[in-house]
Amino acid sequence: MRKRIPLVLGFGITGQSILNYLSKKYNEIYLIEDWEENPSLREIDRFGIKIHVNPQISRELFSKVSDIYSSPGIPIHHKALSLASEHKINIFSDIEEFIKINKSKKILITGTNGKTSTCQILETLLKSVFSDLKIVSIGNIGRPVLNYIDNDIDVSIIEVSSFQLELLNEVRFDIGLLLNIEEDHLDRHSDIEDYRDIKNSVLKNADVNISYNDKNIFSKTFLNYKKIKLPDGLTESSIFKDWPSHDIENLKASVAVLEALVEKFRNGSLEDINLLAKLEKAFNRFKKFPHRFEQLEMIGGVNFINDSKATNLDATLKAISAANELEKVRDIYLICGGDLKGQEIASKELQEMKSLKKVFIFGKDKELIFNTLRQYTHCFIVQDLKGALNEAVKFAKDKDCVLFSPACSSLDMFKDYKDRGETFKRLIKDLNYE
Predict the structure, then answer these.
(1) Global pTM?
(2) Is the dihedral of CA 145, 146, 149, 151 positive or negative?
(3) Domains of the chain
(4) Is the pLDDT of residue 26 over 70?
């Protein structure tokens, strides 16, 4: 009988981690990478095995394939995945492989917004409370899980996107945390109901469900993190008083996970912990990842905020609300735009936009955004991010705020949201602001 060979689909950061993992088990692998100019392909020999790069996608090929390991960026209707279904070939993901093999307690976190921030907050909190345990945050946070699969870990905090959940077969894990569901990625998913079902699936195979509402849809051990009561005096604490409200919500979600783990690891409850003291100790020197409501240096008395990670409208509305909460901020000038990814913004509740002084819009869907937001505030279309910033600083004065919160994907004009945010920060440094 002819030997069958695994196929890796996609060669980004996740695909490379999959190929590295499989190269220790197989001496021959198929690889399909649609971006033929991917510079990583030039170093394909580093894996030390025979790799067939971009074989013709055909029925003959799939008669030789054993399993497919797909990267999350690959659309579900890709020809290779369609043929896999036709040939009854199993499709796996790196997340599933990690869940099956690594022995740690596993917490999967998803939501339209706040995933990475919550992973970072939760990791910081758990390391403070469980100082004797090995705790890591991995996954969509930028650390492929297969790089950690053989590590001795007690608790794995795994960020998962809707794309990763879509690939995940039924496999059990300890805690599923669903932060929120808002319109996003409708260019990839068929509609909002499909997207909602995929996001809810993080709860289906988890022993403990933590969610943003009271719907215990899978009848599991359940917590609504919105009802978590943080210690009295927390928001007046010097450590937390400047946290935006959406990060306080992420902190609540993290405390809900802590509550579940205290019972699991210590057979106790939160009442056994001086929670305020633990929180203040844990976050005394905490610094969030960049591009998430990142308050930059003030220039000319103007507060510049880089919120490039806001890739959907809900995230931008939260950023506007947070900017309005800042002390001594007078007028807010919003810079936004890019690829809406199918968001139907005209149907959204946008009263928060009325608090803005002016909006400067660029990118692929600038006309659509302009025609919607002009009903609420003064809007201007500009050529690009540089033009938007230059226009904003013409108006912004002492105690004003220039908020860069795009509400869109970056891929129409930038490599990713990080590239977009770093570009914004470079442009600010180049300002001749008097």
Answers:
(1) 0.89
(2) negative
(3) 5-92 (3.40.50.720), 100-282 (3.40.1190.10), 294-429 (3.90.190.20)
(4) yes
